[in-house]
Structures are given as structure tokens and as C-alpha cells.
Amino acid sequence: METIISFIGANIKVFYILILSIFLGIEVISKVPSILHTPLMSGANAIHGVVIVGAVIVMGLADSNDYLSLVLGFIAVILGTLNVVGGFVVTDRMLEMFKKKPKN
């Protein structure tokens, strides 16, 4: 627990930026018309590949005894992968809606 508290204390500026980004994201998304939410979210999910690359780099640079970095990196890889796959599934489903249906 003390490791987590010292990590948060050492990176407090990053947490401020994260909280500000969350509020900014909520404000921007609330201004986008609802018809554009699906393409916007599917594109944002595909960009989540950056998170996967960052998590893999963090896990690769972490010491083998630094379990906090390894666990957080592993969780980031899992969640990033789910988000990317979900983004592609939603995009594929959305594009299926615009295809012409064959006439019988």
C-alpha cells in the first residue's frame, strides 16, 4: 500500500492531467451530436492501440520484482485489447448497416 501511495505522490502531476482530461473529454463528447457518437467512439477505440504499445513498453522496462508495474501493464494490455477489438466490431456492425440489401 505504501508503494502505491509513494507512486501517486511521485506522479501527482500526471494524475492532475488525467482528471483534467476526463472532464475535458466529458465536455467535448457532450457537445457532439448523438448521430456522430458511434463513428467517433469506434475511431477512438481503434486509437487505443497506443495504450497497448505503451503498456508493453512499461512491462518490458519494469524490473522483474516490480509487481505493481507488471500487474498494471498486464491490466492495461487486456483492457486496451478489449477496447480495440470492441471498436473494430462496432465499426464493422455500423458499416453493415450502410450496405445495400440484395433484392429477392
Kindly report the average pLDDT value.
84
Largest sheet composition = none
Total beta-strand segments = 0
H/E element string? HHHHH
Global outline: elongated
User: What fraction, in percent, of the residue positions are helical?
Assistant: over 70%
Q: Give me the Rg, rounded.
A: 19 Å
State the end-to-end CA separation. Answer: 65 Å
Briefly characterize the structure:
The protein has 104 residues and is mainly α.
Structure description:
The chain has helices at 2-10, 12-31, 37-47, 49-61, 67-97. It is elongated. With 104 residues, it is mostly helical. Helices cover 81% and strands 0% of the residues. It is built from five helices and no strands. The longest helix is centred in the last third of the chain and has 31 residues, at 67-97.
Topology diagram in text:
Blueprint: H1 2-10, H2 12-31, H3 37-47, H4 49-61, H5 67-97
Helix pairs in contact: 3-5, 4-5
Question: Which descriptors apply to this entry?
Answer:
mainly alpha, 104 residues, single chain, 0% strand
